[in-house]
């Protein structure tokens, strides 16, 4: 069963498509910041006790910065892709 079929149309809520760039930036930042925090903390202290606490603390700083970076860099990357790829 598709996830979209779990809720009837009357109760399913979606954002307007004009918010797609912000939603994309949010999801990209959430995933990217988490993975980077996991790797960086592991490379600095290893996978010992306190690993997840350090990841959480690092993520609290990294996620808002990653979101801002994705918002600011996305137009530049889109232009670079347009220059590079024949669409």
What does this protein look like?
With 87 residues, this protein is mostly helical. Helix content is 69%, strand content 0%. The protein is built from two helices and no strands. The protein starts with 19 loop residues before the first helix and ends with a helix.
Protein traits:
single chain, 87 residues, mainly alpha, 2 helices, flat
Summarize the structure.
This protein is mainly alpha-helical and 87 residues long.
**What is the oligomeric state here?**
single chain
Strand content: under 5%
Report the sheet with the most strands, covering strand number, pairing sense and barrel closure: none
Q: What order do the SSEs take from the amino end to the carboxyl end, as H and E?
A: HH
SSE layout and pairings?
Elements: H1 20-45, H2 51-84
Helix pairs in contact: 1-2
């Amino acid at each position: 069963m598709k996830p979209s079929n779990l809720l009837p149309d009357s109760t399913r809520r979606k954002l307007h498509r004009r918010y797609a760039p912000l939603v994309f930036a949010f999801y990209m930042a959430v995933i990217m910041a988490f993975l980077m925090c996991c790797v960086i903390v592991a490379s600095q202290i290893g996978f010992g006790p306190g690993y997840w606490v350090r990841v959480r603390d690092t993520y609290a700083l990294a996620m808002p910065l990653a979101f801002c970076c994705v918002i600011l860099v996305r137009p530049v990357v889109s232009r670079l892709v347009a220059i590079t790829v024949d669409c």
